[in-house]
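Try this one yourself first.
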């Protein structure tokens, strides 16, 4: 498909640090996908997501967040509210709010993502642990160490069960547990 070629060209521009041309190529890909597939397709949602990455690399968080939201709207209509793509979109929007320093909006989006992942995958899935980790980071940033530590402990348990004790994500969770434990002890 021609739209995929534009997307691939954009990736080359991105690797070269040429965000302006990368954005133009992604926008061309989006226009083609809309013309061929209509506005309500997963590929169009993916194009908005690709455009988002360019805005993020430019530090344009407002436009990146707008692209996240466009992708979410389409994903909800295409896949419904209980699909991993919807969870991924909510998570990405949470990241956008994080970059803007909007903590409550960030937490709301991460929580929506987590709820979907639990329904789709169950409690002991690494994707669930990923969401809990981000929520834990949110609480750690707010200096709510007990809440953060509990979430990091859950992440540690899941990652250790799925990946083993030496995996990088397990090690990160262990370090987060230790970090928040020390901070909680120091504040007593």
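Now uncover the answer:
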């Amino acid at each position: 498909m021609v739209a995929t070629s534009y997307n691939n060209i954009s990736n080359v521009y991105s690797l070269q640090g040429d965000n302006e041309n990368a954005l133009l190529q992604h926008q061309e890909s989006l226009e083609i996908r809309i013309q061929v597939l209509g506005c309500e397709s997963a590929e169009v949602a993916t194009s908005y997501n690709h455009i988002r990455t360019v805005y993020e690399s430019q530090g344009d968080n407002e436009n990146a967040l707008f692209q996240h939201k466009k992708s979410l709207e389409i994903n909800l209509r295409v896949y419904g509210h209980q699909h991993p793509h919807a969870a991924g979109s909510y998570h990405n929007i949470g990241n956008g709010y994080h970059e803007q320093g909007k903590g409550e909006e960030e937490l709301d989006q991460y929580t929506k993502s987590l709820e979907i992942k639990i329904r789709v995958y169950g409690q002991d899935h690494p994707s669930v642990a990923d969401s809990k980790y981000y929520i834990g980071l949110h609480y750690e940033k707010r200096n709510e160490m007990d809440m953060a530590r509990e979430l990091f402990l859950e992440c540690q348990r899941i990652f250790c069960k799925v990946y083993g004790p030496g995996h990088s994500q397990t090690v990160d969770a262990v370090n987060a547990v230790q970090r928040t434990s020390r901070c909680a002890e120091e504040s007593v």
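Discussion: The CA atoms of residues 2 and 132 lie 39 Å apart. The two ends are 61 Å apart (CA to CA).
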